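name: query_chain
kind: protein
chains: 1
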Amino acid sequence: MKTIPLILVLTSLIFALIGCASLQDIIQPTAQVEPSSGAQALPPYSGPKARIAVADFDVKAAKAGGEIGSGLREMLITALINSNRFSVVERQVLEAVMKEQELSISGAADPASKVERGKIRTADLIITATVTEFEPQASGGRAGVGGGGGVGSGILGGLLGGALNKAHLALDICLIDTSTSEILAATRVQGQASDISGAIMAGFFGGWGLGAGLSAYANTPMEKAIRICIIEAVKYIAQATPVNYYKH
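structure:
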């Protein structure tokens, strides 16, 4: 009686464990919003915008620091502007703006480039975000039977000659009315992604870059998790913002 090749045994075991799921189903990045916003891809928009400001991110995750929070904030601002639904006012550079105005009225500046005072716009909403989870490698290990990371990275990774790594990011987001300080909406947004080494899907979420302090995660599952989380955050903010705030 001929010995059944090991590869056939392993293949049969995989299909038994995953119910004939495809490889794409295993490594497809996922996103979750709590409570569920039912968000779909945002359709094109050309109407009035809501005027908002994005506060500095509060970082409470053990594996993230201030630079991570700054980079995530940059990416959220970019994504909000690109959604064409928000006019974002920036407060981190307000001191520099005020200096330009002071220079203009001092008489030292060229009159042709005079900056008018009294036109700084205020936000109707402030977006706050707290980084509660930041796991660049939540699980994973070298591929091969008996390798770390469980069934996915051991058996499946062994067949494909890679390592299955997972990354996870979670943000707590609040929408606050600047006139009343009332919290209008709040949610928890999560992004999770997995990839077998060398199988990162280039350009999966478009060409906008990673924020400052996040370049170390380029072309890794963490990059996917970050982009998923930011995209889902924008969807939630757009849908949770009351209609009467879209007026500019």
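note: The chain has a mean pLDDT of 73.
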